[in-house]
Amino acid sequence: MFCCGRWGWRDLFTLTTGTDNQRAAVRGWLAGLDAVQPDIADRIITAWVTTWASSVWPELDDVPFSASAPGYPLARHVNEVTRAGQVLMPRAAEDWGATLDPEIMLPILILHDVDKPLLSDPRGKTSLAKRMPHGVVGAMLLRDLGFDQRIVETVATHATDAPFHGDTAEAHVLHYADLFAADHALRAQGLVPFYRR
C-alpha cells in the first residue's frame, strides 16, 4: 500500500456516485461522453464527482486549470484537451500507423486531470499537491473504479514533470493535446506558455 505520513492513499478521496444534481453537472461539464459506451461514461462521471465531492470546491466550475493560471477554468482545459485529442487520433493512425481504441483514448483525454480538484483550493496548491505528483491520485481513483490499466498508467504519468512517461501512442496523443490546450490557457492568462519555457 502506498503511504505518505499518517494517511494511506484511500484517505485522499471518498468514492461516491454523488447526487443526481452532481452527476448532471458533471455530464453537462464534460465533452466527449457521448462518444464512449454508457458504462464507461458512467464511471467517468463517478470519477469526476468523487474528486469534486472530496475537494473544497463547492462548484466544479470554480476549479481552475492550474494554481498558476487561476482564471482559466479546468472544464475549459479538459474539454479542449478532449477535442484536440479527438483531432489527433486519426492523424496518429494515418501518420504513425497507430491503432487507437476510442474506448481507451477518450477516457484518457477526459480523465487526465481528474485529480486537479484535490490539488488546488482558492488559495493555490493544497498540501496534497506538495506531497503527491499530479496524475498519481487520479490514477489511484481510476484503478479503484476498474478502468483499464492503459488508462490508469497514462493518467499517472502524463504530467510534464512526472519522473517517467509512457511510450504508447495514447501517451503521445495525450501529451500533445494537453500541451496544446495548456499553452492556450497560459496565453489567455498572459502567462508564458510551455513551449517558451
Describe the secondary-structure layout.
Blueprint (H helix, E strand, L loop, with lengths): L2 E2 L2 E2 L11 H10 L8 H16 L10 E3 L2 E5 H23 L5 H10 L4 H4 E2 L2 E2 L1 H5 L4 H9 L4 H8 L12 H20 L9
Antiparallel strand pairs: 1-2, 3-4, 5-6
Helix pairs in contact: 1-2, 2-4, 3-4, 3-9, 4-8, 4-9, 7-8
The geometry reads as: globular
Strand percentage: 5-15%
CATH topology: Hypothetical protein af1432
- Helical residue percent? 40-55%
Q: Assign the CATH class.
A: Mainly Alpha
Task: Tell me the CATH architecture.
Answer: Orthogonal Bundle
Low-confidence stretches: 1-7
Give the count of structural domains.
1
**What would you call the quaternary organization?**
single chain
Question: What is the C-alpha radius of gyration, as a whole number of Å?
Answer: 16 Å
The major beta sheet can be summarized as: 2 strands, antiparallel
Query: Major sheet: order of its strands?
Result: 1-2
Number of separate strands: 6
What would the average pLDDT be, to the nearest integer? 91
Q: Please give the count of helices.
A: 9
Order of helices and strands: EEHHEEHHHEEHHHH
N-to-C span:
36 Å
Task: Name the descriptors.
disordered N terminus; 6 strands; 9 helices; about 10% strand; two-stranded antiparallel ribbon; about 200 residues; globular; mainly alpha; Hypothetical protein af1432
Report on the structure:
By secondary structure, the chain is mainly alpha-helical. It has one domain: Orthogonal Bundle (Hypothetical protein af1432). The chain has helices spanning 20-29, 38-53, 74-96, 102-111, 116-119, 127-131, 136-144, 149-156, 169-188; strands spanning 3-4, 7-8, 64-66, 69-73, 120-121, 124-125. The strands form 3 sheets. Strands 1-2 form a two-stranded antiparallel ribbon. A two-stranded antiparallel ribbon has the order 3-4. Strands 5-6 form a two-stranded antiparallel ribbon. Strand 1 (3-4) and strand 2 (7-8) form a beta hairpin. Helix 4 (102-111) runs parallel beside helix 9 (169-188). The longest helix is centred in the middle third of the chain and has 23 residues, at 74-96. The protein is globular. Residues 1-7 have low confidence and may be disordered.
